[in-house]
Design goal:
33% strand, 8-stranded mixed sheet, alpha+beta
Length: 151
């Protein structure tokens, strides 16, 4: 049986605050965010971490305020950020359901960009094996992002 995403986060020492609504987790120095694989562009190594508010069903979306808090912390610098890309069972469904994800690697976030519409994208760097995350995190903190977050 495949490991649920909540257990995956917990195995990395980053338990989700709410297993139903959390989109990511932090342990104080490291933040691991999940994002949908269809929102990743392999050519530019960019992934959408936060869509414009109007694109969410209720304007806020479960987990959005927690995601904004996590992005503010990454934006300020000094934190290490990672992304696990998850695949949707049906990309048109609302809400979406995770069907699968890579359990052996995460992506290192190297840069954040905010857009005028309130969305945030990350530039991804290295693929980091999950058993190397703690060692990688010791030397890969983000610097501060210029300006204020767009949300």
């Amino acid at each position: 049986m495949k490991t649920p995403i909540s257990q995956f986060f917990e195995s990395l020492g980053l338990p989700l605050r709410n297993i139903r609504n959390s989109w990511g987790a932090s342990n104080g120095t490291t933040i691991l965010l999940r994002s949908w694989s269809d929102r990743y562009d392999a050519k530019t190594k960019q992934v959408v971490l936060l869509r414009p508010q109007h694109e969410y069903l209720d304007g806020q979306g479960p987990g959005r305020s927690e995601r904004e808090e996590q992005l503010r912390r990454l934006w300020a610098g000094g934190m290490v950020g990672y992304v696990v890309l998850v695949n949707a069972k049906d990309t048109n469904a609302r809400p979406r359901e995770i069907v699968d994800f890579r359990r052996d690697i995460v992506w290192n976030i190297v840069e954040l960009h905010g857009n005028a519409d309130g969305s945030v994208v990350a530039i991804l760097g290295d693929l980091v094996p999950v058993d190397e995350v703690a060692r990688h995190a010791a030397t890969h903190a983000l610097g501060p992002t210029l300006g204020s977050p767009p949300f």
